[in-house]
Target: DnaJ subfamily B member 11
Amino acid sequence: FQVLSDEEKRKQYDAYGEEGLKDGHQSSHGDIFSHFFGDFGFMFGGNPRQQDRNIPRGSDIIVDLEVTLEEVYSGNFVEVVRNKPVARQAPGKRKCNCRQEMRTTQLGPGRFQMTQEVVCDECPNVKLVNEERTLEVEIEPGVRDGMEYPFIGEGEPHVDGEPGDLRFRIKVLKHPVFERRGDDLYTNVTISLVEALTGFEMDITHLDGHKVHVARDKITKPGAKLWKKGEGLPNFDNNNIKGSLIITFDVEFPKEQLTNEQREG
Model:
C-alpha cells in the first residue's frame, strides 16, 4: 500500500518490480529505454560504442600494365615506380569519424522523442605527403589479357580509415609475328611457288629465341596450315601444358610471266 500511495515509488515498481525498490534504485529515461528494449535499444543510439561502424576506405586504383608476348611466354618481373600520398601527422586537431546518431529525449511520462544528429570525434590533424616507392609485379607465364594483380593498401588513402587497393590490369601488346588465341599461337609464313611445289625446310624463331624446325616434301597449297603441338603458350594454371603453334602458309606467285627456260626447268 505504501508503494501504491507514493507516486515515485509506484513508477519504480511498475518499471523494475520489487528489485527496483531495493538499494535506492533510481530511474532514468536511459534505464527505462533499456528496460523495455534491452540491448536492442542501443541500435537506435543508446550507446554508440556498441554500434557496428563501417570503416571508410580510400578509392581503388586500376592501372593498365603493358606486357609483351615474350613476357607472357617466359614470365618476367616488372618494377613500377609509384608516387603514393601518405598521411603524416600535422599540428592541430580535426573533426573525424563523423556519423549520424539517434538521440532519445523523454518528453513526459511514457513519451519519448528520437532525433538524429551528427556526432564527430576529435583526432590529430594529418596532411598527405607524396612518397616514392618501387613495386615489383611478377608477370607469370601464360598470364591472360585483362587479369589483375592486386597490391593491398597501395591505393588512394583515407585520413579517417584504410587506403584502397592498387590493381595492375594486364594488357598484352600485339606482336609483329605471332598472334595469341587462348594458349595457341598463330603465325603466317610466305614461301615461293617453287617451294610450294617441291617442298622446303626452314626454322622459325620462337618468342624465347629457340628454333622451330619446319620441313615439307609435299605440295603446299595457299592457306595450308601446319600444327606444331607444344609450341604454343604455357597454360596459366599449369605451365607444364602448352598450346600449339599454327603456321599458315602463303604462296608468293611470280610477278612476271615465266620464261621458256623456267618453264622447261
Remarks:
- The first strand starts at residue 61 and ends at 67.
- Residues 23-52 have pLDDT under 50 and may be disordered.
- The first helix runs from residue 2 to 5.
